[in-house]
Amino acid sequence: MEAQKVDMFIMSNGKFFEGHHLPQIRERLIQADDSKWSMIQMAQFKDPTVSLIVSIVAGSLGIDRFLIGDVGLGIGKLITCGGLGIWAIVDWFLIMGATKEKNIMKLQQVL
Known about the structure:
Elements: H1 3-13, H2 22-31, H3 37-42, H4 48-58, H5 63-68, H6 71-79, H7 81-84, H8 86-110
Helix pairs in contact: 1-2, 4-8
Pfam families: TM2
Membrane topology: Multi-pass membrane protein
Subcellular location: Membrane
């Protein structure tokens, strides 16, 4: 792919990924062929900030985990009321990283 397209993608979607993953993403996108460009642009990534807000508001119900696709953990949080609140508080610090990791996995599936 063209480096200019890749740089525009990274500038507009960089917040969805961990900073240390961006150089690797850039290299993989440059090596990808142009036929995948439309699929890459159509991919919907989860916003880590939204996940954090949902976690703060309704984290004890597991909605934050359901939002990013961790259904098993979401059910566990729902049944235990967020681990009696402890798991919900711990997730305030973990949910943004988990969301970014899910976004990386989604991008890898497209590539």
